[in-house]
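Q&A log
Question type: sequence-to-structure
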Amino acid sequence: MQAQRLGSVWTIGLSLGRLDLASRDVVIHPMFEPTVATSIGSFYDIRTSRAQKLLADPSDKRSPRQPLPGMDDAALRRSHISPARKLIVKVGSAVVAPDGTLSPTAMAQLAEQLAAIRQRGIEVAVVSSGAVASGFAALGFAKPPTAISHKQAAAAVGQPLLMQAWAVALAKHKLSVAQALFTAEDLADRARYLNARRTMGELLTRGIIPIINENDTVSYTEIQFGDNDMLSALTADLLSAEALIILSKASGLYRDGDARSIVPTVHTTAAHSAAAAKHVRDERTSVGTGGMASKLSAALMSAKWGIPTVVAGGATPQVLTRLLDGEVLGTLFVPSSARIAARQRWLTGAARPKGTIVVDAGAAKALTKQHASLLASGIAAVKGTFGRGAPVAVHDSSGAAIARGITLYSSDEVAKIAGKKSNQIMATLGYLLADEVIHKDDLVLLD
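Response status: OK
Response body:
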């Protein structure tokens, strides 16, 4: 079943993760039972659904640009932001709906900038907040609700309004948009994560601007997830973006909370990160939920993964194009020079551990000091229930999280072989899947 075109509008009636993108046609693979997703206005509507087959991870060819010693703030931006050819823009609720109602002026200004970015040949995806802020007034609330069911209802009303506004604003520049709604579970599942990556990549290749949001209507914890800040970092990694720009009401990270003084640059060292955190004040807008703390967390994570990130004011005229031109606006989070593999970034970001493996002191030292594989002999206990290939947390005997990894054995199997040498696994289980429980290539240490 191919996607159908209705006039100038393409609609896709299928679930994400059931796309067969071997060709440039969008079809539903015959081995899957198709599902139908609604289309609202002039945009693509793509919903996530569990993938049935684990797909290979696409190669990630990004390489971080190395800052030269003595670079000033402008030079750092020219080095890290200006060369970006794939960009993620996160737009906060306070930017698109400062009073609880979508601002046509703000949407038009953002659309103009996105069009200018596309004219430069830069691929761009937007992580847009605003569904709850756009919908609560229609439910009769005078201000954004706090009860979770009220928030979910507001998101259900507001999401189509938000998408329609994006579609109308960008249509004036002859650009089409696609809707993608995610929950944390969608990105935590490796197969669905990879399918989302392929689908979003296909849209970008075709010149479509994906408008990404959390699926607040069905998500519980996601509505408290930080106003999409963390989702924007995960999306930047998902799409192998070369820069992430987080637009908010704040013009950047304010020094000691003073809006008159912006911290221009933050490096992703432990000392710089700790110093940056001291500038954060617990302030949120009336329509947002994240605040600067969640923006700082997302920006540091993204930069640690090697993605240059800027937090800047969404109301600043032409902020996106000016940042790409190297102007010193907002706060730049300089990316780490040490890149970690895509699978390991997924483990530290999107993946949610299904259980915990507790290791003894010797194993903890081998993991943290020697980056060794985790052997059964060093396992003291197992918590939770998980299958083979699941992401798990690794804790030391004090309960501190020291690593995450992909286990080669299930929780039942780990419990049976815990404390045993590798040459005893066969006799214990009757089979040997591997000498190690977690291979070092599938293990990432936590700071």
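Response note: Residues 1-69, 222-226 have pLDDT under 50 and may be disordered.
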